[in-house]
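re: that complex we talked abt at group meeting.

here r the seqs, copy pasted straight from the sheet so there may be weird spacing, ignore it
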Amino acid sequence: MPWLSVIFLLPALGAFGLSVFPGEISYRFARMWALVVSGLTFLASGIMAYQFNYADGGQQFKETINWIPQVGISYSLSVDGLSLPLVLLTGLLVVLSIFTSWELNQRSRLYYSLILLLMTGVMGAFLARDAIIFFLSYELELIPLYFLISIWGGKRREYAGTKFLLYTFISGISLLVVFLSAFFVSGSGSFSIDALANPQTPYPLAFQAIALGVLTLGFGIKMPLVPLHTWLPDAHVEAPTAVSVLLAGVLLKLGTYGIVRFGLGLFPQAASQFAWLLAVLAVINVIYASLAAIAQTDMKKMIAYSSIAHMGYVVLGIASLNTIGLNGAVFQMVSHGIISGLLFMLVGIVYEKAGTRELPKLGGLFATLPIVGAFFTTAAMANAGLPGLSGFIAEFLVFRGGFERFQIPTVLCIFGVVLTAIYMLKLMAKAFFGKIPDQLLTMPRVSLPELAPSFVLVLVMLAYGLAPSLLTGMFEPSVATLVKQLGTETVAQLPR
Amino acid sequence: MESLVQFSWLIPLYCAIGALLSLPWALGFLKTQRVAAFIGLLFTGAGTLHAGLILPQILAGAGGMYQAPWLHIGSLTITLSALVNPLSTGMLVLVGAVSFLVQLYSLGYMDHEPSLARYYGLINFFTMAMLGLVVSNNLLIMYGFWELMGLSSYLLVGFWWSKPAASAAAKKAFMTTRIGDFLLLVGIVLLSVTAKTLDITELGKWAETAQLAAPFAALLVLLLFGGPVGKSAQFPLHVWLPDAMEGPTPASALIHAATMVAAGVFMVVRLEPIFALSPIAMTVVASIGAITAFGSALIATCQNDIKRVLAYSTISQLGYMFMAIGAGHPEAAIFHLFTHAFFKAMLFLGAGSVIHAAHTQDMREMGGLAKKMPITTLTYGVGVLALAGVFPFAGFWSKDAVLHGIEEAHLYPIFVMGLLTAGLTAFYMSRQFIMVFLGATSEKSEHAHESVWTMSLPLLILAVPSAAAGYLGNAWFLKEELNLQLAGLSTAVVFAGAAVAVAVYLLKWMPKGAVEALSPVRTALANRLYIDGLYDELFVKGIEGIATVVAWLDRNVVDGIVNLISAATLLGGQGLKYLETGRAQFYLLIVCASVLALGVVVGMR
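got the structure back, here u go
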C-alpha cells in the first residue's frame, strides 16, 4: 500500500467528494464526512508509523513517479523521523479540530472541504521529497486557510485574511526563488531534495549564505520570526477555533520544519556559519513576544504571542546544530503543537460560553467551568514548562543543546520561562480566579464533544512529559543522520 | 519485609494514586466529598506505614539505589533513580507522617468545605511530589518534583480562588519561586554541560576531582542556590511565604512550614559536595541564612496576624539551616529541619485550632484562650518552648547544633546574628503566646471552645517529638557532647528575650519614652521593611511597563510599517496595474529578477 499517497491525497479526495456530493446535505453529514476522511487519514498515518523502521535514520516509504521529467519535477514522497511525528500531529489535530467546531452549521460543506484541503496541503509539505511538491503543497495550504479566516472569522476577518495572504505569499515566493536558484546552481537537473541536498557537491558559500537568508525570510514569516510575525496575532484573533488550533498546532511547524529540511539540508556550511544569527533571532522571539504577551488583554491574542515566543525555542534548538539541541527542537515542535493547540481549544470554549475573551471582563470561571478550568491550569503550566508535561523536556533539551554552542542567548531564552509564567498566571488570575461577574453566572454547559479533544491533548501532553522517550525514539536516528551530515556536533565542555 | 525494602522506591506512588482517585469527586462527577478525604488519608497512611516499616532496616544498612532508564539522547542520559538511604527514608517518614496528621486534622478543620475532595487531592499530589523529591537521585528528576511541589503550593495557596487576596498570593508564590527556579535551571544546564552527568552520586564523585576556577565555581554554586533561596523563602526571595498564609491553615502547616519550604535545605544538603567546590559561595549561603534569620525574626516581632508571625518565624528558622550548611555542617541543618518540622507543623495546626475557635487571625482580638482550649494551649506551649529553644525541648538541641557548627567554622559575625535571632525568637513567640492564650478574654475569644478530636489528636501526637526529638536525635544520630558554655549562653539569651516579652505584654511594663522612640522602627517592621512594596514598584510594575511599551511598539511601529508598506504597494499597484495583470505574472517577475540577481552574485564570485 502506498501509504504516503493515501495520507497525502485522501483528504483532497474527501474534500472533492464533499463539495460535489449531490443534493442538500446537513451540517451533521458534512461533519461526519470530514471526521471519517480525516480519521482514515490519521489511521493511515498510524499504520505507516506502525510499519516505520525506528532504527533507520534515513528516508522511508519512498514513492517516486516522474511527473514533468523535462524540468526535473517528480511526484516524490517519503517520510523520516523528522516528518513522521509532524504527520501524526497533523492527523491528530485535524481530527480533534473537527470536534471543536461541532455546532458549526453555516456553509458547513465548504468549511469541511476547506479543512480537508488544508490537511492535504500540510501533509504534502511534510511528506514531499521533491522541492516543487513541497512548494505546491505549501501554497495549497494557504488558500483554504485564507478562506477559512475570511468567511468564518470575526469582525476584522477580511483585514486579517488579506494580511495573512500577502505575508504567506511573500513567504512562498522566497521559497520558490531559493528552489529555482538551487536547481540551476546545483546543475543536477532535478528538483528532488536528494539531488538538491547532495553533500558531495556543496553549493558555493556565498550562494549558500544568500539562499539561506532568503529561505529564512520565507520560513521566518511562517514560524513566525519577529519582526515578520504581525500577521499571526491578527489571524488568530479573527480565525474560528478550529483554524487557530491548526494554525498554531501544525502550520507554524512548516516554517521550522522547512528550515531544518531545506536550510540545514541544502546549505549546511552557511547554516553552521550563521547559526549565531538564528540564535539571536530566537532570543528576540522569546523575549519580545513574551513581553508583548504580558500586555495583552484579549486571551486569544495573549496565547498567539505566547505561541510566537515558544517557536523561539524551536529556533534556538535548530541553531544549536547539535544532537541534543536538534532533538529538543523537534520535540518542541510537537509539544508546541499539542500545548498551543490545547490552549486555543480552551480559549475557544471560554469565548463560546462567556461571550468574551477580554480578561478585564472575565473572572471566577472556576465556578462555572470547573473542568475547563482544570484543563486550562494544566495547559498553562505545560506552557510554562512544568515538568511531567511535554513542554519541560522539550525546553530542557533545547536549553541543554543550545548552551553548548551559545551560552548567553540560551540563558536569555531560559529567562523566557519566567516571562511565560508571568502571563500565564496573569491569565489564570484574571479569567479563572477571583470573583465571577454577575453576567457570567449563567452560561451554557460544556458538552462532551467540546471537551473530548482537550482531554485527548492533555493525555498526550502527559504521556510525552512522563515518558519522553516515546517521542524521541521516533526522530532520534534521523536527527543523528542530520547532525552527521552537518558535521556540527559540539562536545560538551567547560564554558569559558 | 525484604520486598518492602525492594519496593521502597514506590512510596511516592501511594500518594499519586490517592491524588488520582480524588479526581472524580474533585471534578464534580461524584458527590460525597468526604469519601475522597478518606481515600487520601488511606493512601498517605499506607505510604507512611511502608516507609516506617522499612526505616529500621534502612538504618541497619539495607536499601540502596533503584534505577530505570528514562531518556537518552546523544551524550545526555537521564536515569530515573531513587536513592533509599537513612536520610531519604527519614524524610519519607517525616513528610508522610506530617502529611497524614495534617489530613486527619483537616477532617475537622475543613469540615464544611464544599471542595474537600480537591483539597485532599492537592495535599496528596503535594505529598507525592515531596516524597518523589526526597528519593530522587537525579538532579533533573529532582527538579521535576521540585516544580510539581511549586504547582501544588500555587493551587493550595489559591485554594479559595474567589478571594482576591488568595489569587494574588498564589501568583506571588509561584512567580517569586520561579525566579529562583530560573537560576536553578540555568545552574542545572551549566552543571550538566560541565560535569556531563546529572546523577547526584556521580556528581559527588565528579566534585571530588573537579578543578574549577574560583569565580566559575562560585557562579555555578550560586546559580544552583537560587532555587533553594526561592523555595525556602530566603532573602531576597522571602516575600511570598507570609502571603502564602492565604491558603487553608493545615496546608500551610504541611507545605509552608514543615516540608516544602525545607526542601531547599534538603536539596543543598544533597548537593553538598558541589557546594563545597566554592568556599566563597558557602560563605554567601551562610550570610544569606543569617540575614534572613535575623531580619525575619525582627519582622515577626511586629506582626499581629497569628499565622504571619509563624510564617516569618519559619523563614527565620530556615535561615538557621542555611547558616549551618554554609558553615559546613549539613548534619546540623538536617537535624534542625527534622525538629522544626515537628514543632512548626504543630504550631501551625495549633494556630488553626485557635482560628477555628475564635474566627479571627488577628492576635489583638484574642486573649485568655488558655481557659477555653486546654489541649491547644498545652501543645502550643510545648511548641513555643521547642521553637524558642528551651532545654530540653527539641529546638534547643538542634539550634545549639547549628550555633555550635557556626562557632566551629569561626564565622563569628554570623554566630552573633544567630544568637540574637534566638533571643528575638523567644521574644516574639512569648509575645504571641501571651497575646493569644493569656490575659483577659476578648469578645471573640469569649465563645471559643476546644476543637474536635480529629484536630486535637494530631496536636497531641506532634507534641511528643516536639518535646523529645531533640534529645533523642542527639543521642542516636549526632552523638555530640552538650557544650555547656554555648548552651548557657544561648539559654541566657532566650530567657532575656522571653523576659522582655513578659514585661511588655503581660505586665504591661512599658516606659513611655521607649515606646515613642521605637515607634518608627515598629512601623517599618510591621510593613515588612517595605521590601514587598519595593518589589511591587520595581519589578511587577517594571515588567508591566516594559510589556506595555513592547506591545505598543508591536502594534504601532512593527505592524504600522507593515500596513504602511502594503498601503504604498496598493497605491503604487494602482498605477502599475499590478493587480489587474494577475498574480502569476507578478510571481514570474519576482522569480526572474531574483534568479537573475542570484546568478549575478554567484557569477561574480
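couple things i noticed - Residues 336 and 398 of chain B are 5 Å apart (CA to CA). Chain B is about 75% helix and 5% strand.
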